[in-house]
Amino acid sequence: MQLDSRQLAAFAAVLHEGSFEAAARALHVTPSAVSQRIKALEERLGRVLIRRGSPCAATEAGESLQRHAQQLQVLEAQALAPFGLEAGAAAALPLSIAVNADSLATWFVPALAAVRERHDIAIDLHVEDQDHSSELLRQGRVLAAVSAEPAPVQGCRVAPLGRMRYRAVASPAFMRRHFPRGVDDEALAQAPCNVFNQKDQLQARFLRLLTRRRLQPPQHRIPSTHGFIHAALHGLGWGMNPEDLVAPLLARGDLVELAPGCTLDVPLYWQRWSLEAPVLRTLSEAVAAAARAGLQPPDTPPNAGERR
Amino acid sequence: MQLDSRQLAAFAAVLHEGSFEAAARALHVTPSAVSQRIKALEERLGRVLIRRGSPCAATEAGESLQRHAQQLQVLEAQALAPFGLEAGAAAALPLSIAVNADSLATWFVPALAAVRERHDIAIDLHVEDQDHSSELLRQGRVLAAVSAEPAPVQGCRVAPLGRMRYRAVASPAFMRRHFPRGVDDEALAQAPCNVFNQKDQLQARFLRLLTRRRLQPPQHRIPSTHGFIHAALHGLGWGMNPEDLVAPLLARGDLVELAPGCTLDVPLYWQRWSLEAPVLRTLSEAVAAAARAGLQPPDTPPNAGERR
Fold it and tell me: Between the ranges A38-52, B64-78, B200-214, where is the mean pLDDT highest?
């Protein structure tokens, strides 16, 4: 049995664009043509592949097909490159990559520019916690990810990228108000801290490192790298921020460190599908180069970290 | 029939913390106590309220209860304030607010600092497109939102905040490469642009404004306010960026405008539940003040915008 390439392209486009209408525009066909192709594909495979909604999403059965469509595109691009032709079947599909928010706001983007120098391909970034990025790799929604997971996801290769360095910072006014007698256990138990989201354990790790206790101070959730820094600047709470972003603010005295000189490092890894494709190789090399320029070098990490 | 306050607190904590274990830690009880309270509440109401998963989420039946728990907390805080006491039943619940990414990265955070000056409450931000934020208001997951929706969500009041101003920018190298003969229709149809996500229509609006055509250039998706700026700086594509963030980069010549002087404004609105509660009033006043400081003044908007 062979899959129909136009049906597969319609399937991939609906998932990428989120609706049958938008997929039709992207493929330059009518919405009813898209609808017919999806229906034919679903009848052929005997399964519902797309959960109709806003946006449309892959069903569980659809996920394996999504992965196949992504792989097909990468392989076709490779096969057609010597002819100077673009990939056909799933040409609407861009290079989908998951990356954690702090990496995207700091060292990651130059890698994409390097890929674009050599490959004429659109790039589709997913901002995800590293926990979730393994799931996206498995589902076939992304073909590579910046992850905190050192063990390869099934069907993937993994390489260490380096360590993202964090410092605990707050505004001078916040320090005067919440730590008038210095940064002791009692004050740390009361002073509000900022966390990125439910999964962000960095502040808790810092508290354990400093106090050897499991403190539960009040928490604000600020799921935005720069909102997170603003929240420290405006005295909402203290928080762990990427060293590169807060260095100029520390130098100017707009922020101060809770424990000067104390850092937490989060090791990051590059998870990519095991496919021999030039575009994936270029991407992996470019990401490694950007990581060398923007992260602390990797080492044997005692502190496997969970992080945004 | 009256709801048991400890059961309701357990319900709210599981949804906020994402798991029974984390809720137990937050409430200083055992996980089995949390589990028993949730079960008792579900048996009492005859419905499954929480979809067990990672993270746990409200079922459809649970959503209306979530809204009730949020409202209860706000009202209790109001009733107890004269006694100098904190709210009880749902004290684990923070003030949940939805805000679009670009607002959070620019003008919004000072409003939170002003609220914290007067109310001892934790803040829980949800970064959402304005489309989605109406849904979060209805579900009871947030009690206020920065939204592009001018019509009040059911049970909410709405007030105009102002207009967020965007400019189309790219790197000088990108301009030389993709617009060697100037910014004409043909070049605009080919030059890659950055979009924030599936829903981001700003680049398409700019293209229609400039060319009066529906062009479909290649698109990169970069769902991060600062990643979006990096993507322009590193020549990945052109994109519509908040004026405040790109002004210094334009002044330095690191970025240039595609159509100098041409701006797009996105009107933003403040949607909040219709509850007479001091903390909501303080928040609304603080958000209005921050918007006055950080946005263009509102006017009768011909351009209802969809935006990140």
Answer: B200-214
Model pLDDT, residue B195:
95
pLDDT digits (tens, 9 = 90+) for B206-221: 999 999 998 989 999 9
- The rounded distance, in Å, linking the Cα atoms of A88 and A85 is 9
**Same domain membership, residue B172 and residue B87:** no
pLDDT number for residue A188: 97
Cα–Cα dist B113/A231, whole Å: 8
Pairing of β A193-195 and β A219-221 = parallel
Residue A98: which H helix or E strand, with range?
strand A95-99
Residue B30 is assigned to a structural domain of this protein: yes
**Distance (Å) from the C-alpha of residue A160 to the closest C-alpha of chain B?**
22
Q: State the amino acid at position A151 in one-letter form.
A: A
Query: Are B224 and A127 an interchain contact pair (Cβ–Cβ within 8 Å)?
Result: yes
* Residues B87 and B173 grouped into a single domain: no
Answer whether A17 sits within 8 Å of B198, measured CB to CB.
Answer: yes
CA distances in angstroms from B22 to A210, B98, B189, listed in the order given? 22, 23, 51
Tell me the Ramachandran region of residue A240: left when phi exceeds 0, alpha when psi lies from -120 to 50, beta otherwise.
Answer: beta
Q: Give A190's pLDDT tier (boundaries 50, 70, 90).
A: very high
- Of A15, A38, A66, the residue at which a domain comes to its end is A66
Segment B144-161, tens digit of pLDDT:
999 988 999 888 999 999
Judge if the upstream peptide bond of residue A298 is cis by omega within 30 degrees of 0: no
For residue B239, give the CATH number of its domain: 3.40.190.10
Mean of all residue pLDDT scores within chain B: 88
3-state DSSP assignment of residue A226: helix
Q: Which of A31, A46, A66 marks a domain boundary?
A: A66
Instruction: Pick A125's closest partner by Cβ from B26, B105, B223.
Output: B223
Q: Lowest mean pLDDT: which of B16-20, B39-43, B277-281?
A: B277-281
Q: How many domains does chain B have?
A: 2
Q: Is residue B99 part of a domain?
A: no
Q: What are the residues of chain A with a beta carbon less than 8 Å away from any beta carbon of chain B?
A: 17-18, 22, 25-26, 55, 94, 101, 104-105, 108-110, 112-113, 116, 122-127, 192, 198, 216, 218-227, 230-231, 233-236
How far apart, in Å, are the Cα atoms of B56 and each of B12, B19, B62, B126?
11, 6, 11, 16
Q: Is residue B184 part of a domain?
A: yes
Asked whether residue B298 is assigned to any structural domain, the reply reads no
Same domain for B172 and B79: no
What residues contact A262, with CB distance under 8 A and at least 6 apart? Answer: A167, A168, A206, A209, A210
Average pLDDT score over residue span B65-75: 78
Say if CB B20 and CB B32 are below 8 A apart: no
- Residue A30: give the domain boundaries: 1-66
Q: What is the CATH number of the domain that holds B51?
A: 1.10.10.10
- Nearest CB partner across the interface for B224, out of A25, A94, A105: A105
